[in-house]
Amino acid sequence: MEKSTLRGRQSLSEERGPALRKxxxxxxxxxxxxxxxxxxxxxxxxxxxGPNKKITQSTSSNWSGYAATGGRFTSVSSNWVQPTAxxxxxxxxxxxxxxxxxxxxxxVEQTGTSADCSGGQPSYYAWYExxxxxxxxxxxxxxxxxxxxGSVTVSGGGRFVLTITNNTTGGSFTTxxxxxxxxxxxxxxxxxxxxxxxxxxxxxxxGTASFTGTTVNGQPIGAFNxxxxxxxxxxTLKAQTSSLSGGTNFSVAWKHS
Length: 257
Fold this sequence. Notes:
Blueprint: E1 20-27, E2 30-37, E3 44-50, E4 53-60, E5 63-69, E6 75-81, E7 95-101, E8 108-118, E9 121-130, E10 136-137, E11 147-156, E12 159-166, E13 172-178, E14 186-192, E15 195-196, E16 199-200, E17 208-216, E18 219-220, E19 227-233, E20 236-241, E21 250-254
Parallel strand pairs: 4-19
Antiparallel strand pairs: 1-2, 3-4, 5-14, 5-19, 6-11, 6-17, 7-8, 7-14, 8-9, 9-10, 11-12, 12-13, 15-16, 17-18, 17-21, 19-20, 20-21
């Protein structure tokens, strides 16, 4: 199986950002190359946490996690434990990442890991992506339970430094890429379901994805009044995001494929 993705948020209520996500699936003699517009979701239901601190709550058909919006964001970093894929005979997908842009903008600069299922077997791998270029899968070894760190940093002149490190094995990958039209509008840490031309693909049962030490522009993401996003399809809750702890820590729990 070969998969190619372009990651962007989809809202259940409105389309505001043309960021695309593409998935290339090769199953037997069938090959599907898909692309469809993702969109940023409207913020709803403000939840006050104290003076000058507010977290908004929204839903997305393919994202669950936290996103700070409004820019100008020049760095994002988070740690997560690589989830274990609980596979059935179904083909399912999931990704866990940090990035700049993608929520309300048409640029995406991000790096992360995936936990997919095919034929009852799980696969785990790391990648980075600079939309509109295709993502690049990495040879970095990834196993369930590995302690990961991902970061994306603007280095000036349209350049981004993307780093992903497996703290369990000591393996690491860093690349410098250019995106001249990046808006730097959002920064996020996300668990995601990939999408195809026909819609969001089945989400892998990943149990719980735990993110810690999530920072934006060197500060806790909670300092930016971030949007807490639950993944919802119709009336079905697919993944639920916890409240922030210490302004930097949260978890995303799988609920439904």
